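hey can u check if this looks right to u? its 234 residues, i copy pasted from the old doc so theres a chance i mangled smth
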Amino acid sequence: MGMFSRLSDIINSNINAMLDNAENPEKIARLMIQEMEDTLVEVRTAAARAMADKKEMEREIQYYTDSRDDWEAKAALALDKDREDLARGALLAKQKADTEIGRRRDAMTLAEEAFDRRQDDLSRLQAKLDEAKAKHRALMMRREAAEQRIRVRHQTYDGRVDDALARYAHVERKVDELEAYADTIQAGTPSLEAEFAALARDEAVEAELAALKKARSKAPVKAGDTTPKSKKED
């Protein structure tokens, strides 16, 4: 059973609402497009039939117009020949031709109206079909994008990523060890500031030692202390 019962259902349909409420919108969109394309073929066939009817009416109108003119000419000829009976018969045939012309013109008017309606139906149906195809393409793009994201995530979160992270952690630990080793080497080697500080400390100690020696050399020798100065200093 089709989704649409008649052409007006398609033309008046709200495609977005139908697809938004569908459980499988991409499948429904495909069904819509198929039914619209089938209906489009039917409408085009009906439009072609209406156009063919119009052309047939035009040909028949021309035929009966020529026939009417011919009977009118024959009626005039019959009068010229004093044959009123023939003239009367010709005029009767002319009237029949006029009647057929009127009928064909009415039929052609109906054919033209039918053709115009079919053309309008074709335009609106084509617009709906284009809308459905655009919606279907959008749904396909969304599905393909979602599938691509799923594939990427599966590829990202497989065992290879865990292995890569483990290798990275191992390399990071090696770098930490090298940095720690570099720090120990740097700690055993005095810096330039440390060497200057040590030099200053040595100069202060030497100056204090010299002052102490000088003070000791000037101190008086106690009685009974026969130890030579140099020995005391030693």
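Confidence is low (pLDDT under 50) at residues 230-234.
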